From TrEMBL:
Family: Belongs to the protein kinase superfamily. CMGC Ser/Thr protein kinase family. CDC2/CDKX subfamily.
PANTHER family: MITOGEN-ACTIVATED PROTEIN KINASE (PTHR24055)
Molecular function, one GO term: cyclin-dependent protein serine/threonine kinase activity
The name this protein goes by in its record: Protein kinase domain-containing protein
Ranges of compositional bias, category Basic and acidic residues: 327-336
Key words of the record: ATP-binding, Kinase, Nucleotide-binding, Phosphoprotein, Serine/threonine-protein kinase, Transferase
Top-level taxon: Eukaryota
Protein kinase domain: residues covered: 1-249
Presence of the UniProt keyword Phosphoprotein in the record: yes
Gene3D superfamilies in UniProt: Phosphorylase Kinase, domain 1 (3.30.200.20), Transferase(Phosphotransferase) domain 1 (1.10.510.10)
Length: 365
């Protein structure tokens, strides 16, 4: 990192470090080590093969729906874990989703923020193509719903290999959104009209189109989910917990977080799909915590303790194994009433998207 850091306290209080220390989940990238050398800070993360954008670019053809379902199921489990612990990411995009084979992990928590932190929040967050409309309209207060919007755009992109809302500027981004969702009104997003008026912005007038025109390879369940996630009004978007109950994820093998993270004495395995997921979970139960699912004993990591690290040159400090040092705070847990009452039944008919330029042509960095 470019900034100079003159104390460990300053390093450990960094937003990214604080958020990663509070989250231990198989679908959140692990911060293995923090090194401060000559007042310069280095982060060491676990190895992942590539990010989702690189995978899309290298494959050249759309993914199957089962692949998309498997990856997104894992991401929403990570987001559920994160949001329940009082954080939202604010910069979800394909480049920040790291992939190794069938496993996907959320990375880059540099813009992560505590839900209970005081507004006003930063206006410029997330890459423009995945930025929620309330952020585009410079709302001073927003929530984890911005992550849900980003995931709706990402899911559509995984199907079509084209960004759903590829705006060239903030104003053009809103135009692209209106061209698919239609211009918001008092019924769809009264708060958005107030935000626009506060900055003297007028929404372009446009009708909505059917999402199936934009993402023709997606199933009805997938289109319904994308439509729900990309609701104009952030209060009408689902939580990550609600998304995991959506029919699109019905084929997935799911263990509720309250059970998965309880100390049961069994090893956990990354989420997976269908019968394979059931077999993976069954096999994992053969091995107690401290063993690997392949039958080999776990590596003894006791040597990673800072007390056992040999002396190094002056000016070099290390902090190891941050994953379990801070327990999540119980008062940060978010809930939504009646989450089990099939909330997706409230959705309007699923819209569809328009054909755009090839996704690979000009990816915004």
């Amino acid at each position: 990192m470019k900034k100079k850091y003159f104390s460990w306290e300053e390093c450990i209080n960094l937003r990214e470090v604080k958020s990663l220390r509070r989250m231990n989940h198989p679908n959140i990238v692990k911060l293995k080590e923090v090194i401060r050398e000559n007042d310069t800070l280095f982060f060491v993360f676990e190895y992942m093969e590539c990010n989702l954008y690189q995978l899309m670019k290298s494959k050249g053809k759309p993914f199957s729906e089962s692949e998309i379902r498997n990856w997104c199921f894992q991401v929403f489990q990570a987001l559920s874990h994160m949001h329940q612990r009082g954080y939202f990411h604010r910069d979800l995009k394909p480049e920040n989703l790291l992939v190794t084979k069938e496993l996907i992990k959320v990375a880059d928590f540099g813009l992560a923020r505590e839900i209970i932190s005081e507004p006003p929040y930063t206006e410029y967050v997330s890459t423009r193509w995945y930025r929620a409309p309330e952020v585009l309209l410079q709302a001073s207060v927003y929530s984890s719903a911005v992550d849900m919007w980003a995931m709706g755009a990402i899911i559509a992109e995984l199907f079509s290999h084209r960004p759903l809302f590829p705006g060239s500027s903030e104003a053009d981004e809103i135009y692209k959104i209106c061209s698919i969702l239609g211009t918001p009104n008092q019924h769809t997003w009264a708060g958005g009209l107030q935000l626009a008026a506060s900055i003297n912005f007028q929404f372009p007038q446009s009708g909505s189109i059917n999402l199936s025109e934009v993402v023709p390879t997606a199933s009805e369940d997938a289109l319904n989910l994308i439509s729900w996630l990309c609701s104009w009004d952030p209060r009408k978007r689902p939580t990550a917990v609600e998304v995991l109950q959506h029919p699109f994820f019905q084929p997935c093998f799911y263990v509720p977080p309250s059970l998965r993270f309880r100390s049961t004495g069994y090893a956990t395995t990354p989420p997976s799909v269908g019968a394979k997921g059931a077999m993976d979970q069954k096999n994992a139960r053969r091995y107690p915590v401290g063993s690997l699912s392949n039958g080999r004993p776990a590596v003894n990591n006791s040597y990673l303790s800072t007390n056992n690290v040999p002396a190094r040159a002056a000016g070099v400090q290390r902090k190891l194994e941050l994953d379990h040092q801070v327990k999540p705070e119980s008062n940060h847990k978010l809930t939504k009433e009646n989450a089990m009452n099939q909330p997706w039944s409230r959705l309007p008919p699923a819209p569809v998207r328009s054909k755009g330029n090839n996704y690979l042509a000009a990816k915004e960095q």
